[in-house]
Write a structure and sequence with these properties.
mainly alpha; globular; 5-stranded mixed sheet; 11 helices; Glutaredoxin
Length: 364
Amino acid sequence: MSGPQAGQGPEDQQGYGVPGPELNSAPTLGAGQPLAPPPQPPGHPQPPHQPPLPPQPYPHQAGWQPYPPQQPHPPAPDAGGRRKRIGAIAAAVAALAVVAGAVALFTTGDDKDKSNTAGDGSKPGGGTPTAPASPSATTGDTGSTGDSEGTGDTGGTGSKGELVKPAHSSGADGTTVVIGKPSAQHTLDLYQDPRCPPCSIFEQNVGATVIKDIKSGRYKASFHLATFLDDSFGGSGSKNAVSALGAALDVSPDAFLSFKQALYSAQYYPQGHTDSFGDDAYLLKVARTVPALAKDKAVFAKFEKNVRGGTYDVWAQKMGDAFTTAKDVTGTPTLKLDGTRLTGGSGLPPMTAEEFDKAVGERL
């Protein structure tokens, strides 16, 4: 389009304020006057003024909806409430699963409704447990010990599937393991499972104190080893570790105490319920850090043979079975001094050396 000719303004050009030929019937307006709507033919009333439509937000802005507003598929009246109810039900199911997992963590068998109120574990088995003979009554001639030395059967090796009792154990199945001085007038019973997390905390904090007290003759210690956490966690680490502890006990009571302490140590205790103790190679790795087992090559070779060969697997099962018959024991760790349960200030087993020493001192 050519520009305006000289002497003409924009309003004089077609399309710049001057109506075109099709609008010649409309009055010509002067500069600055608003353009009036064309007159309507007779019989056609003037349409009412329509207000402009409100501006609509763009799709990316909040509140946008198709114009005109449409709801081809309106949501159910209670859709929001339904979603909330479904969320609440899902949360409740998840909470129940967590509670069930916590109860099952240290409880097995028919006795799951008798979980330890202290929250430190529980024993397997149902019905009313029968009381085993007290350690002080079973020590006698077979349970007396020297300076941290146990006595009993001489132990030995046998084919897998055959009960072999470790040296320094006593009882019909070798399930009585008492370590300490013959002159000690008191007996401390310790109920533990190798895979029990609270047991590892107890051993890391109090284990050295227990060994010191045993060596000083403050009390003898009777050890009751459980294997029920294999059922809760899966795997075979508890039974395998107890079998390896039998191999250590066969070497000496000192080897047993030190190896047990190493298994529960922060460095080697499996985290997250990992079944590391189910691996013989892992147990042997831990054993190599125990001087009572590793300093003599011949001793370690025999220990390794017993671990890899499962010499004390049946004995480990017998130990686990004996644990289920213990009276008034619903969790691990459980500590009893002369038959009376030891607890700390919170009613739980004492988990620090200070709490433990105070609890023992109050009973002696």
